[in-house]
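Quick question: what would this complex look like in 3D?
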Amino acid sequence: MEATAAPPSRPSLKARRRRSSTLTGRDRMWLWLMVGIPAFLHIALVWIPAGLTVALSFSEWDNLAPLSDISATGFRNYWIIFTIFEGDLFAALFNNLMLVVWLTVCSAVGMLFAYLLDKNVRGSAIYQSIYYFPVVLSLAVVGFIWKSTMFSRDRGLLNEIWPGGPVDFVGDGSKLFSFDVPFLDPALGLSKNFAALLVAMAWRHIGYIMVMYLAGLKAVDPSLREAAQIDGCNEWQSFRRVVFPSLRPINVIVVVITVIEALRAYDIIAALNEPRGTDVMGTLVTKSLLGEGGGRVGFGSAYGVVLLLLCLGFIIWYVTNHYRESEI
Amino acid sequence: MLGSRKEPNNKSGNTRNPRREMTKSTESSHKRRGAGLNRRDFMIGGTAALGGAALLASCGDDGDAAPVATTAAPATTAAPTTTAADTGPGSTSLGSNYSGEKNREALAAAVAATGVETMINTIDHNTYQENFNTYIQQPDDCVSWFAGYRMRAFAGRGVLGDISDVWSGLNGMSDGFRSAASGLDGKQYFVPFYFYPWAVHYRKSLFADNGYSIPTTWAEFTALCDTMAADGITPLSAANDGRWPQMGMFDMLNLRVNGYDYHVSLMGGNESWESPEVKNIFSTWSDILPYYQPDANGRTWEDGAGALREKETGMYLIGTFLTSQYTEQEVLDDIDFFLFPEVNPEHGQDAIEAPIDGFMMAASPDNETAAKALLGGMGSAPAIDAYIAVDPSVVAANSNADTSGYNALQQRSAEAVGSAKYIAQFLDRDTDPSFAADVVGVGIADFLGSPDSIDTFLADIEAKKQTYTFE
Amino acid sequence: MSAVTLDGRSGSESAGFDPELFDQVRLRRAQRRGSKVKPMRMLLHGFLVVMAIGWLVPIGTAIYNSFRDYATDTRTNGPFAAPETLTLDNYRAAWDVGEMSKTFGNTAFIVIPALFLTLLLAAIVAYVCTRYSWKFNIVFLVLFTAGNLMPQQVLFQPLFQFFKYMPWPDFLSDTDTGNLLGTKIAVILIHVAFQIGFCTFVLSNFMKTIPKEISEAAAVDGAGVWRGFFQVILPLTRPALAALGTLEFTWLYNDFFWGSVLLNQGDERPITSSIAVLNGQYGSDFNLVAAASILIALPTLLVYLILQKQFISGLTLGASKG
């Protein structure tokens, strides 16, 4: 068998093809299977269902009825969500947007934590563990802890220390700020209970991001920093000019994590019972596709497609950038 | 990912929550077998029913509940993959949402009383409801569920088994229960187990110490609220976490302000939510909002119960499952309730909410014989007697049940339901559950958050209603 | 992008590392620190301590109160009061009522096979894509990476129907319904399909750092595709697999969504559903539910504490690229 592995440095496309063709037929078959089976599984259980959801969004179907009952309705479901349920839809989209902004801020805080811990602080391993541990908790647990222990109006810790009397962190859907949008009622804005939820999310997100940056910082060539210091750069300058640029690979991953987590957010809100004012796309989709209302598959799928498009748009942006730079 | 999916209506724990209604009237002679019953017939039929069952005097002398297990009878057609041909009906399975410690134990006792070998598969109450739509596509042989629209919604979609033959062997079930258990096709799909009324609960000692008397009219009720407030007591416990508890208040106000018939019509999607009648519900509601505990939207019903126990609040409109929150005997003995006061003299206090819980059979169970034997058994007196011996917070559906051991609250419950002219169930049992939870429930939460927004959210509900089809 | 490898030290060579200069600088820096940076250090420590306390309050309160009785102690005395008595009763009750011996078992039955399959398949794909020139390897990597970022709820309805209509022999499953719905296999499959994306991405990044010459040498020695994988690449990938395995373990273990929507039978449910049971039942007994939360969190916390290094490198592996 004169099977050859790929050459160390990537040759031209043509050269590569030639090489592969030197594989034996059996090896080639194995290669196909090795990639084909996992790929099939992934495509069949992830991409095809996603495509089918798109198709279902143009139909009307009660999921207890046989598949033959699916009937096409064109854009009716979209018309419904954009003209009748638009209050719910845009409020949810706005919350997702708030999440993107907020988690980005949290990511910056995570970077700050990492930067501080990277300064040979005594006990940094302990700090690191403490900041990080919420990430390993199940969101069911996180939801319970925040709702019952921290937020509960009558029994929560936050209300024991909050100045000026108890606040309904869970149920108060009134807006902290809001602005009118033409054709949209009620106004868009950040509700108080969603703001409280953001705190719980930060609890989890900051540690996650911190760890990513810690590893990134360890990889920054120390001599570069020293050199910067010798050159008279102050802390901020050396961070901005030397450290931050060398963190670029981590930055990319962090952006992906942050945006995707913000778009897909669901669990912790569901764990709090989705109080009024805290709906995001994830909860809207789940509410209308699952649950007793699961009979309205087309309607729920239309919500799903909105979420899917948001995620896909971002994914495509990321993937094209990522792979363009790295390979081809 | 945690994801408890959805958000059902009822986030209660050990309680089932009320939904659905039926009524009672004297003329209950219904041709319920007739194929084309309409929704309205159901309601009226329901009416008559409960009452009878509830009456302590147990009107029914139909003899002892025959152990229906034997009646279970030869299944229909595509029947049993029965394993045990010769020795009884064999074994079956029951999907249960009786997840509270007490409920679970009580249910096990009830199942044991039927003598049918059954594997009970318990899922916590909320998850069970949230996932019912998918669960019922591959269920256990028998499943626990709620009577009324909420049952019919599934019966009409062909996922439930016809158990009319079980009904023909049931004794002690009134006609009202039969219609509450029937689908639109006139066949029975449900075996009622028990029910429990919603009423205004209070602590007797608090009322006695302060010299409060039971209000029967709206004026007396609001006056009492004023007095309590002046005495430094928050008049009303108010919870709405999960967005179902305040549906009870909405229903009671609707029944008192507009009457039972309007309730049925509104739930059936036949009335406009922007009508003066509906606005009237909310403006009446506004009268008592100042007496609510603040921030109802974020409070769990359990926390509302805690406030009542501590006498921080004076009254609490909730189902009788309230008592499941209390463990101290002294508190339990101190709890009583009164009927929601009259608002519109035309309707007096003629209606009450008393949701019915029970069991259904899957469309194609593994062992139909055993499943029907189990359902027959659960519908009979021995099973509910065994249940109530463990969990005495409910009232038996079967009129042959032994009521001699009822505690004071159970007796009052039975009386209250027995003397009501109309018996409703609950908002999310009386209409499309998704409409109830995702549209009406949301509107009510908005109302509690900003009571001035009545016109806005009612217009929203009305618009969204157009996208639902009602039965 | 430079590679961040497991030992966290990549790239220094290429930057022209000069040990001598490094030592000098270190010395100078130490001198400086000795003199004036002390107050800043104190400030830094102060900040970190305050934040750490803030971080611990939610879980710390839960842990503390899980050892107290709710009705007789916490409710009347408040969550911070000194305990009247400390008890394990909450844990006992949570274990029994949540049927944790069963649900832990169910979770193990899902997580272990899913973890094993995910890592194996992802390693194979990564191997083929990085070691062989493969016409589609970019396509695959893109597909896998993107698939892993999809919102799961959106996939639910078609997947549910697929499992419902997919015939499946009963002797290969834990139910007798003739299809995949309600089986742990369905949950394992969707976990594998989903997680394979992320794992392939990470492992292929890692494998790119293994010199190609190693594979070539093996090939010259006559190793075929499989031997090249199992005997050459897989052993070298072990650190990455350990890291990824730790991370994936916590993700799969913590899954609530698929476990609860696909497993409708009560006795099939995973551990994460136990908290829903307890919350529904003892919603007002915070301490009991807190005990349950901690029991549920224990396996992941232990894995995290014991394998912290692997865990963290697992997270950051994704950031490295060849």
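Answer marked as accepted. Residues 1-21 of chain A have pLDDT under 50 and may be disordered.
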